[in-house]
Design a protein that fits this description.
Elements (H helix, E strand, L loop, with lengths): L1 H24 L8 H13 L3 E4 L8 E7 L3 E7 L12 H19 L4 E8 L7 H7 L8 E3 L2 E3 L10 E10 L15 H16 L7 E8 L10 E10 L2 H22 L2 E6 L11 H12 L19 H5 L4 E2 L2 E3 L10 H6 L3 H23 L1 H15 L1
Parallel strand pairs: 3-4, 3-5, 5-11, 6-12
Antiparallel strand pairs: 1-2, 2-4, 7-9, 7-10, 8-9
Helix pairs in contact: 1-3, 1-10, 3-10, 5-6, 7-10
Length: 386
């Protein structure tokens, strides 16, 4: 079966690179990926997959299914780009890899029981398409979710933290700062005091947790005591539970500042919450073994180094999931840069794409054909839930 996978990848190599290149040349940002979704969905529909568009109420989301019944292997496809930077996170390669793996697995299985599911997941860059799809049940009855991410390291798993944003607003009372200063209640002063409290809080937060804020509204004129001031705060933590605790600390701090300054305060989540990533060790190791045959060995991540957050975390809390990083440029580089965008269309990017398609497809074949492997993967997930 692995030989058949290898042959299928070789046969489709040029077509898959053409898809990756087309996406790279035509970047679309979060929830506006209409052409990307049409291209990918069209490729799958042309191969006989049953395509459903606008899933989870999202105009640029879709699913494409081949086969019947359980087990089900899902390939999440990311295809949104960064404003002003294009595919500086390499989502064109993620989409082409998931597309290729789905097509290859479908071709080599020959009508065996089980299903292959390609899931178009828009707006990973802040919009949380996967989180919204999880909430809508798109990943219900899935037995494994397999994807990779291009990067600057070859890491078997992704150290991805939980994150969300909060909008904190203070309301005071406007006044003239010299004409009737005692009548004013300075909302901006309250917001600044919250920044001071958050700075103090930050010195005793656990590893992987932090709060970063900006002022989004601070008044209208220098001769008016600000009646309303608002800030936006980004929170990150190693686990989703730790994130909830951190959010509670932020709200408590804001309420304390409001009490001390005579203002009123509102606090509301201002983004989709990204959960931390729970790696399926047994499936990640299986993927790493397949990728090593292509000459790309993966290592554990460096302790203490975290690579941001992703809505694949929300998927990983429901089904066994993998999200390895595979380098398309040197470790002295970084994603979200023009140089990384160039790497996503480079010859090295092409080689990585084809190697990853083969490794993803072989891992999917293992999952679909090995009940014991599936049981171990589910067992690992249930232990992390406990």
């Amino acid at each position: 079966m692995y030989d058949r996978v290898r042959e299928e990848v070789a046969r489709r190599a040029e077509a898959l690179w053409a898809v990756a290149s087309a996406l790279h040349a035509d970047p679309e940002t979060a929830f506006a990926e209409h052409r990307a979704a049409a291209l990918l969905g069209g490729e799958l529909e042309g191969a006989g997959f049953e395509v459903r568009r606008e899933v989870a109420g999202l105009p640029t989301a879709f699913t494409a299914r081949s086969g019947r019944g359980r087990p089900v292997v899902a390939f999440p496809l990311e295809y949104d780009a960064l404003p002003g930077l294009g595919h500086a996170c390499g989502h064109n390669l993620i989409a082409a890899a998931g597309l290729g793996a789905a097509l290859v697995v479908d071709a080599v299985r020959g009508g065996a029981e089980g299903s292959v599911l390609a899931v178009g997941t828009p707006a990973e860059e802040g919009g949380g398409g996967k989180a919204l799809e999880v909430a809508a049940g798109v990943f219900d009855d899935v037995d494994a979710a397999l994807m990779f991410h291009p990067g600057v390291y070859d890491w078997v798993r992704a150290p991805l933290t939980a994150q969300e944003q909060y909008r904190i607003g203070f309301r005071g009372r406007a006044a003239h700062p010299t004409g009737n200063p005692t009548e004013g209640i300075d909302a901006l002063a309250a917001l600044i005091e919250l920044f001071n409290v958050v700075s103090s809080l930050g010195r005793r937060l656990p590893e992987g947790s932090h709060v970063q804020g900006i002022i989004t509204q601070g008044g209208t004129a220098t001769n008016i005591v600000p009646e309303y001031a608002e800030g936006r705060f980004g929170l990150r933590a190693l686990t989703t539970g730790a994130l909830d605790e951190l959010a509670g600390q932020l709200r408590t701090a804001a309420e304390g500042v409001a009490l001390a300054t005579g203002t009123s305060v509102s606090a509301e989540r201002a983004s989709v919450r990204y959960e931390h990533f729970r790696d399926s060790v047994v499936l990640s190791e299986r993927f790493a073994g397949h990728l090593e045959r292509a000459g790309i060995p993966l290592t554990p991540p460096v302790p203490g180094v975290y690579l941001g957050s992703s809505d694949i975390g929300n998927v990983s809390g429901r089904v066994p999931a993998i999200h390895p990083f595979v380098a398309i440029m040197g470790s002295d580089g970084s994603d979200h840069t023009p140089e990384f965008a160039e790497a996503a269309a480079s010859e090295r990017g092409r080689r990585v794409l084809l190697a990853v398609v083969e490794a993803l497809a072989c891992t999917a074949v293992d999952v679909l054909g090995d009940a014991e492997l599936r049981a171990r993967a589910w067992g690992d997930l249930r232990r992390t839930e406990g």
